[in-house]
Amino acid sequence: MNLVERYVHRRFERASRSAEQRVGLAGAVKWALRYVFPDHWSFLLGEIALYSFMVLVVTGIFLTLYYVPSDAQVIYHGSYALLYGEQMSEAYRSVLNLSVDVPAGLLFRQVHHWAADVFIASIVLHLMRVFFTGAYRKPRDFNYFIGLTMLMLAILEGFAGYSLVDDLLSGMGLAIAYSVAMSIPFVGGQLASLVWGGPFPGRSVFWPRLEIVHVLIIPAALALLITLHLAMIMRQHHSQFPGPGRRERNVVGTPMWPAYALRSIGLMLAVGGVLFLLGGLIQINPIWQWGPYHPYLSENGAQPDWYIGWLIGALRLMPNWELVIAGRTVIPNPFWGGAAFPLFVFVVLFAWPAIERRITGDVLRHDLLDRPRDRPIRTAIGAAFLSWVVIVFAVGSTDRIFYRMGISYTTQIHVWRVGIWVLPILVFFITRSACRSLQRAEAHPLRAWQGNVVRRTPAGGVEVLSDSPDRSVPPISEPPVGTLPGSES
Amino acid sequence: MKRVFVRWLTHRSRIPPVLRLSLAVVLAALAAVGLAAPASQGQQSLGGAPSGEVNPPSKSPEPPGPGDPTKTFPDSPALRIEGYNLYQQGCSSCHGISLEGTAGVAPSLRGVGAGPVDFYLSTGRMPLEQPREEPLRNEPAYDRSQIDALIAFISSYGGPAAPTADPSRGDLALGFHAFTLNCAGCHQIVARGGITVNAQAPDLEETTPQQIAEAVRMGPYLMPHFDATAIDQHTLDSIARYVLWTRHPDDAGGWGIYNIGPIPEGMVAWFIGLAALVLVARLIGERMDEPV
Q1: Closest residue in chain B to residue A421, using alpha carbons only
Q2: Whole-model pTM above 0.95?
Q3: I want to staple A309 with a disulfide (CB 3.0 to 4.6 A). Which of A396, A436, A460, B126 is the partner?
């Protein structure tokens, strides 16, 4: 033990002793501090989401102090000259004042908004990691469902926040949301008037409702689910990639204390730092430039935040089909893109573990992860599905593509109505063959092998074969550890 | 060409045949759609009516309101003669020898006055290359004195006086309000441009106040035109002032990322914010000396 290690060890002993004396939890604390995290950077993606959520809560508390959930119309007489004398809702005015007059108000607003965008992006990335490494398999499928639920809640939460401001963009977004809600067969009308308290733009009760949903109900639900998510991970232990000494029932890696905790705290500071840098340097949602919403206003190219973009794309892509029975429109068109499509995507995600068990017949418990290439079919299906959603997402910005590149809007829609089915098939085959050739070569796309191939000379020396044909190939390739029945190849 | 294609299909290569086949299918499908799409689009833009023999109606620009300032362009017999010559070379093939227009190609220019001519020429929209395409902003094909000559010639056939706008007399808040109400639906709220059915509403980053006034009164291409009761002179001045302002809007939040909202914001969130954090995770996520 060197000096530092001794010091750390002493602190550790003292921390557990002091916990024991006060709450009698020495055992639990010791267990927690000795918890071992597997060593792989991709395990930190979920933590990015966790820390973004913390930033969201902290900045959100600040914003709540200033927000007024009211659609009462007022005439603006504040300090922003371009809107002087303009009619607007109290809600919009409160956010305008926050952005223009309150010290650091704009900074907090922008950090909050960037944090929301990054939060959901990191959840999606984390989901991809979990999917492509098969981390959702038994016994972690339950935790995977919690994760998916949190993703849905996060999207809803983001949309609610975006709508609260009552600027031109949020008003246009709510108008679309209203038409989607109305389009739900049989219950749509009632549902919409339940939420909005009446026909669009709704009665005044809508605004306090929206605020409570945004600042209390969904965040509390998220916090609860995050706690559950983490508790389950601790209880079941992390999964890990196969490797030397790593087996199904052990974890090889870094203990919580002193190493991993510092690493994680470092990441927390990085998340806070990056989000505050973004919030201070790059403008997001300049509502004073959009102006207040009134139902008779619209602007060109209005877009939702990125995580709703796929729904806009779906609305655009969907041919004008409606289900009409006996002269009554049972399923109006917005239902397909705005409600059925996201529902389908999430149903597939939720059902996937069961589907996979069904296909492979593999019902065993798995604590070792798969490398994506070792399961070419799953990886290919995932990539194809992802590309399917990404295309729909990209179609959401066809208007800008038309504007920037002059490709006619209708042409784009026509092309994508076919491409949406053809491209994923292509992606499937490309991914599958890429996996297989990676498997054969045992090359790692992110970590090219860096060693040298050497040969013992008869004289007893060592000769470096610097011109070995493929430097990405390590000389000895072990068979991947932990390949299980049901895996291809 | 054909040999190459057949070889590509039959030759043994490392791309599996399934992949090659699906690639061929994709290309064929895309080609089919590419061929089919413009056709159906054309039908849409004409509302299904047979194209051809209708003479595009010439837009009669709205005159400036009574007592409103107008823009006068130089005029002289010599200038008109120069304009006549330029017109015969550059414009008569579409607009007709004596400005009468050509059925199915281009509208008559009789009585349009100075405003539209100045607008279409100073923004480089005319002469068009193809009669059916949307006139887009371009490098002007004529210099100022040639434009004046064409104006002198064409407006000698009559037409309202050209409108004008003076941003320095406008009111910024009124301009913002009026722009939101009348123009943002097509040109985007910070005048960054957008699309309408089968046309682009351009961004207004290079437009001069004079061109703004002419565009508002005339309504080029699919843009509606506004008379002096819809947008009076003071509002027009204010809109011009607002449009000038949008070139350097008050980006209090930092880098404005072009002021069009969520699309660039989403890109920043993914490709700057999250990318930076993934990089951090990659750097601190594991011990580098560990064999992998």
Answers
A1: B26
A2: no
A3: A396
